[in-house]
Amino acid sequence: MPPPRWLTAFHKTLSEHDKVSVFQLATVDAQNTPHVRSQIYRETLTPTSHPSLPLLLSSTDIRTPKVAELLANPGNPSSLAEICMWLDPTQEQFRIVAQTYIIPSPEHPHHARLGSTMGKAMKALMEEDNVDWEKKRREAYDGMSGHMKASWLRPTPGSKLAGGYEEAKTWVERVPNLEGAKTDEEKKNWEKALGNFALMVFEPVRVDYVELGIQPNRRRIYVRKDGEEWTEEDVAP
Fold first, then answer.
1. Intervals of the chain under pLDDT 50
2. In Å, how far are 74, 80, 121, 132 from 97, measured between CA atoms?
3. What residues make up the domain containing 52?
4. Alpha carbons 145 and 113: distance in angstroms, whole number
5. What is the pTM of this model?
6. 38 within domain boundaries
7. Number of neighbours of residue 159 by Cβ within 10 angstroms
8. What's residue 178's pLDDT?
9. pLDDT reported for residue 193
10. How far is residue 209's CA from residue 119's CA, in Å, rounded to a whole number?
């Protein structure tokens, strides 16, 4: 099956406007309370033999509440989440419902469940395209700035700061790449931050694509059926 048309449009806009990378991610907790936050789109991976099964990549701190909302929520056994990405230069909006996978450190308890939950696209990338997901996680981490790496050393996101913002002044500000680490402490910081760093992999199953930059405005719903086929339906904007 060919790539879905929404994906072609998505990549076209991103290739022409490389500063557009922020999306909103919505999840629901065990009490059915919705939560939304902004994240960075990293890249798309698509199995060579399955071009209609793209995977969108982002990253997170494995300690954040959204991980539990996705992996340990009885009300959401399929680990579904919704992405909303507004592309202002072209007035396009993509709302993407996706099966979500978390790739933490191999030492983390959540890593054990990864093999049994992987979808077709993730397995194809591993078995046919030789993608090593732990290597991919490390590459994403290594590609971060030293300041960003240091953010994974901070206290658990959302936890109370007993010392207020004065405590924040004691945080490590920068973590160099491993080859640039000059002391045992810097090497230890690199490992600890990497341990908290996780990839998020989104496998889209439904896409609501709106084009407001053209007249008349357009809106299409794309739904992935069992297998690899996508259906399209024009709806009112």
1. none
2. 18, 7, 16, 25
3. 5-137+198-234
4. 30
5. 0.95
6. yes
7. 9
8. 86
9. 98
10. 23
